[in-house]
Amino acid sequence: MNGFSVALLVFSGLLFGAYSIAVLEQLITLGLRHLGVALVSPLAEAAALLRQENLVPRGADSLLFRSSPFVALTAVALAALVIPLGPGLFGFDPSIGLFYFIVVLGPFVIAMMNAGWSQNAKEGLFGAFRAAAHLLSYEVPLGFAAIGPVMAAESLSTVRIIEAQAGLWYGVWQPLGFAIYLVSALFMTYRRPFDIPQAGSELEGGVLAEYAGPRLLLFSAALRAIFFLLSAMGVVLFLGGWHGPLLPGSIWFLAKTFALAAFLLWIGRFLPRLRHDQMLSLAWKGLLPASLINVALVGILILIRQGGGS
Fold this sequence. Notes:
The protein has 13 helices and no strands. The chain is mostly helical.
């Protein structure tokens, strides 16, 4: 498969993932009785945004404002290359796949910061600062949560991590790491209760306050695609990837990804939005110490399992 085919496949997959997350959002809000509305509503929203004019606010940094949605979507697309949908179904499998995934997603946060900074408006500026604080808050616990599966599989390769879970999923005996990963994923995707950088009630949209038309559509697609991507990586690290009985591996992988995404969206409905200081306190005083404890516990459990095996 040549580079163009891989790129086309990745972008098609991301659009499908973004659309699926939009449908899940509608289903969780409206219920299964409104399945038809849930399926059509995202398409109608996209069509409406495509008809809007692409405006640039007066006094804005035009280059940063125009480029930020493309930077966000490109970062997500590059990270998607190391997500294996099934045996042999992945863009490429580097030996440092997980490290690559975390690093490549960094420009997504930069895109969010640039989007807010470039608007020359206080709502976007405050949202940009909060997005930067999110970066420092989520990345360390997320990295430590991912260390547990790496230690167990003795590899950073996403394919190797899945193959090592053929017997027992890591989420079963690393529940603390799994929980930390899920909370950190909500942080990274600005989902409730961690959506202050784009909170409509306080900052009138925050980093996306001045965006409209196709650019807003691109940003919305990128935010939903990264949520889909982090749900998929949660399946890779903790839920056994494509492993499952009877059905093809790719079907199991997608089913687990949608189930995990739906769970996170459902949980978010019942949690009150946290203030900015509460989010930072949770990250540094709660998630970080818990992630260090998790690394120590995983190391002890690995030694016990190896000792029992010998």
